[in-house]
Amino acid sequence: MELVCPAGNLPSLKAAVDNGADAVYFGFRDDTNARHFAGLNFGPDKMIEGIRYAHEKGVRAFLALNTFPQPSGWERWRDAVDRAAEMGVDALIGADIGVLDYASSRWPDLNLHLSVQGSATNYEAIRFFHENFGIRRVVVPRVLSLSQVKHVVENSPVDVEVFGFGSLCVMVEGRCLLSSYATGDSPNTFGACSPASAVEWRETDEGLETRLGGILIERVGKGENAGYPTICKARFEVEGNTYHAIEEPTSLNTMELLPELQKAGIAAVKIEGRQRSPVYVKQVTRVWRAALDACKRDPEHFKPKTEWLAELGKVSEGTQTTFGAYHRPWQ
Amino acid sequence: MSTQPKLSLGPILYFWSRDKTLEFYERIAQTPVDIVYLGEVVCSKRAVVRFGDWMEIGERLAAAGKEVLLSTMTLLEAESELKMMRRICENGRFMVEANDLGALHMLDGRPFVTGPSVNVYNQRTLARLAKLGLRRWTYPVELSHDTLADMQDERPEGVETEVFAYGRLPLAYSARCFTARAHNLPKDDCDYKCGEYPDGLTLSAQDQTRFLALNGIQTQSAHTFNLLSELDELRALGVDVLRISPQAEHTEEIIGIFHRCLTGEENPRDGAARLNELMPIGPCDGYWHGKPGIDAGTLDQYR
Hints:
The complex is a heterodimer of chains A (about 325) and B (about 300).
Chain A: E1 2-6, H1 10-18, E2 23-26, H2 44-56, E3 60-65, H3 74-87, E4 91-94, H4 97-106, E5 112-114, H5 123-133, E6 137-139, H6 146-155, E7 159-167, H7 178-183, H8 187-190, E8 199-204, E9 207-212, E10 215-220, E11 236-238, E12 241-243, E13 250-253, H9 258-264, E14 268-271, H10 278-297, H11 306-315, E15 320-322
Parallel strand pairs in A: 1-2, 1-14, 2-3, 3-4, 4-5, 5-6, 6-7, 7-14, 13-15
Antiparallel strand pairs in A: 7-13, 8-9, 9-10, 11-12
Helix pairs in contact in A: 1-2, 1-10, 3-4, 10-11
Chain B: E1 6-9, H1 18-28, E2 35-38, H2 51-63, E3 67-71, H3 79-89, E4 95-98, H4 101-107, E5 112-114, H5 123-131, E6 134-138, H6 145-153, E7 160-173, H7 178-182, E8 201-204, E9 210-215, E10 218-226, H8 231-236, E11 241-244, H9 251-263, H10 268-278, E12 283-284
């Protein structure tokens, strides 16, 4: 299985390459990718430098172009496809039918991956993208159980990549509008969930309040941790009970499932976190490299080492990790 | 360019009993709605209305002069769900509303309509789908009237545009069932709790602001999107179909109000004010104006 690591900037890219990534993924510095945050991503010069650095060490470089252009912004996505192809990326990770259509007709030799934002949860959808645009890999949304993932792999005409570690989307990616419902901007339209400009923190008599687009997303007492406000991981009131109505602030860690993922024929494991620091990328890449190597050597006896989990625990968001949907009872 | 839009009734998004569903469509046959979408689009476990029932309902509605379509599921994971989708795609009688691109692969060149969960955000996507047999597309709910104007300018020949004009907005889909979770039940043993909430289960912020509605694996807006007061603009944009999403009560009355506003018997502003009274909570229309979806700026005066 290939280890695909996040690169929000050049130092992160180098950290991933130097610590054992098989591939890195990154985006341009605008809304053409789903980690459109201030200070993140690559201008053309840094991207050329990053691709060269990766290639010199035998690491592949993927460009995320996984948001949905509207007519007024179409040229930006089209130009991004052209630039990526000219720079020699090893794959373009796209989601929008129009973008994939353009990329496959203008650059027939360009290797296309379907982003998780393409919402392909079943092999019929994957076949649609394969037959129409010649995609060669699909990243499946974080909503499938392990047995469903296996079924997809068995019937998919292309390689399947899964998320292994990092923030957990509870909703099918590419079809979640919760952020724009509160703020006007969503991953699809703007490339960000809960954009920072819509976040407000307020100290009140009832505790520290976090608001998103003016809506009270979280209220925590003294000594409690207030995480970054995403709607799906906040506490709400339903029928008189206040609780995490959608999901606790946990993050995904599937390391224990590695032998099963390997046996299922998964082609690649993706680490989430282009918005995280180079230190995060370095630690997570190093641990996952060791885990993948150990699993490949001896899948029968593979067990995550305590020190690996401790290392990952230090950089996880929230205090808990979960298998997410891979583990059926979570659903 | 000015069009007189037709009215459609979207698929029922909630879990209603078989009797309630059958009675509902008996009444719908008598309403002035032009197009009716049938089928379960949210959760395959809610199979109390069977494929054969849907076909029969479809025949009755067709006999009453309605254009009938069968809608496919939005989130497909299990092979059994793909099997049902295949049956729908091969029904041979009614056109299909695809809510996932897997349906397009199965339809294999047959004409189709896309629902709100198929992301058609730009002209190139629209053109590509038109080549594959697209007859009508539903405009994504999170986009504004400005983007629709741009899309309409480059719309391919023979493709109609439908706009989600009334209903709680479909906002997200998950592997997890949030209605079961609210009752501390796992999805596999959900006790069909969503059947107790025929308009969804309202979720509020900790300061009691009503925010979302939980409908099984689907998350909706708590507020009801309503574009009736924008009728002049919808006509000017050449929108062909206005979609009303069914709610547990008053759906026929809602259709009636839209119809009277379309025929000029009622002023859209008065109609919108009357609709506010029929909603589970209240109106929103922010997305249409390029703002957060929950905003209701232009509707406030009617509250």
